[in-house]
Amino acid sequence: MLSCKGSLTSTMMSAVRTLRVHGVRRCLATQTDGEVRIAKILKEKFPSASALRVVDISGGCGAMYEIHIESSEFKGKRTVQQHQLVNQALKEEIQGMHGLRIFTDVPKD
């Protein structure tokens, strides 16, 4: 299995970045354009988010993402309501996706 340690050429790094199928994780040193775009939208929609992680789990093609977001804006809302807020924020982007995994949480005080 490839790891992120050591010296990698840009071609090798590009290949490593795309590995994320069937449990193989890719190096997260750089983000895909889709990950950056989605993270930007969520940061704007949830400015009080204390944690945010967006991962392209489709192998880099942008068809499926996993989102982990922790925000005080979710306080008092059921999980389904929290997910609805994320879905609403990403309404335009979701149209071009195959799937989306959402994990939400409220910061611990």
UniProtKB/TrEMBL annotation:
Keyword Magnesium annotated: no
Compartments where located: Mitochondrion
Cellular-component GO terms for this entry: mitochondrial matrix
Keywords, ordered alphabetically: Mitochondrion
Annotated Pfam families: BolA
Keyword Mitochondrion listed: yes
InterPro entries per UniProt: BolA (IPR002634), BolA-like_sf (IPR036065), Mt_Fe-S_assembly_factor (IPR052275)
Role description: Acts as a mitochondrial iron-sulfur (Fe-S) cluster assembly factor that facilitates (Fe-S) cluster insertion into a subset of mitochondrial proteins. Probably acts together with NFU1.
Similarity comment: family membership: Belongs to the BolA/IbaG family.
Complexes and interactors: Interacts with NFU1.
Protein's name in the database: BolA-like protein 3
The species this protein was found in: Mastacembelus armatus (zig-zag eel)
